[in-house]
C-alpha cells in the first residue's frame, strides 16, 4: 500500500523521513523520464484546483505544468477570484471544492487557513506557501542538494548555513528538514530574526536524535565555516510595508551573501542556493529602489557576482519545483503507485 495516498502536505513534519526520501526519489525518476520523453501519465482525468491568495511565478507554473504533463485538468483561482474567508468560510469552501476536485493546492497568508482547509477537505491539500511553512520549495531544494552531492555522501552528511531572516517560511521549513534528516544546520542571522525558541528546540532535539545539530548564531565566520551549502532568501517580502524595509536592511546588511562570506567558508566547493526571486541586481523596480535608498552595492541579500556564478544550481532548484510537486501529487492521488 502507498502510505502517501490521500495524505495532505501542509509541512514537512507531516511525514516520516523515509516518506520524504520516497517523494524525492520519485521526483528524480520522473525528472529523468520527462527529459527522456518516457513519462507515464498517472493522473489522467484528475482535477486539480489551485487557490492563490498570494501570486507566484514558480509555484503556479510548477503545479500547472506538473498537472498537464500527467494528464490532469487544472482550475486556477487567483487573488480576489473566490469568496474564501470573505463571503464563504474556509470550512465550507473545502467541502465544496473537495466534491469537485481530486486535489487542492493553497498558497496564501495564514497557515491556520490551510489547516482548516485540510481538516474539512475530503481530498489531499498541498501547501504552496503560507507565512509559516513552504514544504514544496524545500522538497525541491532537497532534490537539488541530493543531485549535487558526491556519490558516497547523503543528505544527513551535509553542513548547511541559512543566512538572513530565519523567521520566514523557508527558515522554518529548513528547521523541519534538519530535524528529519539530521544534518548540520546553522541559522546565521541577527538575534532579532531567530526562530521562536520552542519550535527551534523541538527541531533541534529531533535533529540530534538523528545525529545532526542545529544552531543559531550571529557570527558569520562560525556559521559558514566548512559548509557545503549557503542558502539565502529575499529580506523584503511583497506586501510588507516600506516603513519596515530600512530597519530590516540595516540589521541584515552584513549578512549579504558575497565573495567575502564565501571566503570565510574555507571550502572552495561551497555552493549557494536561493529560492527566487532574488534581488541580485537593479533590474527590478523593487530591487532598484531598495539598493538606491539603502546605499547597497552589487545586490541586496546576494551579490550579482555570487548569484551568477551559482546560477546553474539556483535555476536547477527552480526547475526541481516541477518534479517534486509532480511526485507529491502522484503519490497522494494514486493508491497503487509503486516504482
Automatic annotation (TrEMBL):
Recorded GO CC terms: cytoplasm
Catalytic activity: carbamoyl phosphate + L-ornithine = L-citrulline + phosphate + H(+)
Pfam families: OTCace, OTCace_N
Catalytic activity, EC: 2.1.3.3
InterPro entries the record matches: Asp/Orn_carbamoyltranf_P-bd, Asp/Orn_carbamoylTrfase, Asp/Orn_carbamoylTrfase_sf, Asp_carbamoyltransf_Asp/Orn-bd, Orn/put_carbamltrans, OTCase_ArgI
Annotated compartments: Cytoplasm
The Aspartate/ornithine carbamoyltransferase Asp/Orn-binding domain, residue ranges: 157-330
Domain of life: Bacteria
Residues given in the record as carbamoyl phosphate binding sites: 56-59, 107, 134-137, 275-276, 321
Residue stretches making up the Aspartate/ornithine carbamoyltransferase carbamoyl-P binding domain: 7-147
Residues holding L-ornithine: 169, 233, 237-238
Transferase found in the keyword field: yes
Keyword terms, alphabetized: Cytoplasm, Transferase
GO terms of biological process kind: citrulline biosynthetic process; L-arginine biosynthetic process via ornithine
MF (Gene Ontology): amino acid binding; ornithine carbamoyltransferase activity
Function: Reversibly catalyzes the transfer of the carbamoyl group from carbamoyl phosphate (CP) to the N(epsilon) atom of ornithine (ORN) to produce L-citrulline.
Protein family per UniProt: Belongs to the aspartate/ornithine carbamoyltransferase superfamily. OTCase family.
NCBIfam families in the record: orni_carb_tr (TIGR00658)
Protein name (Swiss-Prot/TrEMBL): Ornithine carbamoyltransferase
Species annotation: Buchnera aphidicola subsp. Schlechtendalia chinensis
Amino acid at each position: 500500500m502507498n502510505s502517501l495516498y490521500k495524505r495532505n502536505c501542509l509541512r514537512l513534519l507531516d511525514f516520516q523521513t523515509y516518506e520524504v526520501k520516497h517523494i524525492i526519489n520519485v521526483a528524480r525518476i520522473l525528472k529523468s523520464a520527462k527529459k527522456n520523453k518516457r513519462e507515464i501519465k498517472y493522473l489522467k482525468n484528475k482535477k486539480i484546483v489551485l487557490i492563490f491568495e498570494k501570486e507566484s511565478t514558480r509555484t503556479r507554473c510548477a503545479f500547472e505544468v506538473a498537472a498537464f504533463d500527467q494528464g490532469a485538468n487544472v482550475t486556477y483561482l487567483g487573488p480576489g477570484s473566490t469568496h474564501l474567508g470573505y463571503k464563504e468560510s474556509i470550512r465550507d469552501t473545502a467541502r465544496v471544492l473537495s466534491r469537485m476536485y481530486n486535489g487542492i493546492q493553497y498558497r496564501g497568508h495564514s497557515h491556520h487557513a490551510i489547516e482548516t482547509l485540510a481538516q474539512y477537505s475530503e481530498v489531499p491539500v498541498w501547501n504552496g506557501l503560507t507565512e509559516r511553512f513552504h514544504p514544496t520549495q524545500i522538497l525541491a531544494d532537497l532534490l537539488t542538494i541530493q543531485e549535487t552531492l558526491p556519490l558516497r555522501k547523503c543528505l544527513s552528511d551535509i553542513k548547511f548555513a541559512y543566512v538572513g531572516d530565519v523567521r520566514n517560511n523557508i527558515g522554518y521549513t529548513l528547521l523541519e528538514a534538519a530535524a528529519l534528516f539530521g544534518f548540520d544546520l546553522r541559522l546565521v542571522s541577527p538575534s532579532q530574526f531567530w526562530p521562536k525558541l520552542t519550535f527551534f528546540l523541538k527541531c533541534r532535539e529531533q535533529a540530534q536524535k538523528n545525529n545532526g545539530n542545529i544552531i543559531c548564531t550571529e557570527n558569520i565566520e562560525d556559521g559558514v565555516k566548512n559548509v557545503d551549502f549557503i542558502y539565502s532568501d529575499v529580506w523584503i517580502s511583497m506586501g510588507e510595508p516600506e516603513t519596515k524595509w530600512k530597519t530590516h536592511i540595516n540589521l541584515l546588511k552584513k549578512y549579504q551573501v558575497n565573495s567575502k562570506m564565501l571566503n570565510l567558508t574555507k571550502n572552495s566547493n561551497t555552493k549557494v542556493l536561493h529560492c527566487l526571486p532574488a534581488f541580485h541586481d537593479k533590474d527590478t523596480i523593487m530591487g532598484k529602489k531598495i539598493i538606491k535608498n539603502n546605499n547597497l552595492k552589487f545586490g541586496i541579500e546576494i551579490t550579482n557576482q555570487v548569484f551568477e556564478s551559482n546560477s546553474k544550481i539556483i535555476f536547477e532548484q527552480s526547475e526541481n519545483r516541477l518534479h517534486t510537486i509532480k511526485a507529491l501529487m502522484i503519490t497522494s492521488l494514486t493508491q497503487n503507485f509503486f516504482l
